[in-house]
Amino acid sequence: xxxxxxxxxxxxxxxxxxxxxxxxxxxxxxxxxxxxxxxxxxxxxxxxxxxxxxxxxxxxxxxxxxxxxxxxxxxxxxxxxxxxxxxxxxxxxxxxxxxxxxxxxxxxxxxxxxxxxxxxxxxxxxxxxxxxxxxxxxxxxxxxxxxxxxxxxxxxxxx
Length: 159
Fold this sequence. Notes:
Blueprint lengths: L1 E9 L3 E8 L2 E9 L7 E10 L4 E7 L6 H7 L19 E2 L12 E8 L2 E3 L2 H16 L5 E5 L12
Parallel strand pairs: 1-9, 6-7
Antiparallel strand pairs: 1-2, 2-3, 3-7, 4-5, 4-9, 7-8
């Protein structure tokens, strides 16, 4: 299974795009511009997150990322909401309303309202989680291909 994120616009705070699953559009995405994924190929794992108490789509393959080591440092906290600052240090595909203050490299999924701000995040996340669960159960490798802005050459516009 191949997930593709195509970056479509970049502002001073957010890098927005579109998420496709095997060529079919699923939803819009947004990332904090300072921690946005660079163009390339990443591996997606269905990983049990202690903080959220559920399996999450974990993005691996980024430099210096070791999920097993990071998870031992991540505490299981009480009630969390998708748009709060959390101690998560693992980049994930996840629900959330905005990228401001997020430094974990996560990609938020949903319907883009304005650059960096999402709504309707639960349904695309649930669809992706179910497809990921089935793919992993069948032994299918899941990759994430990021295309778009060459971040190492382009700096975000100042506003």
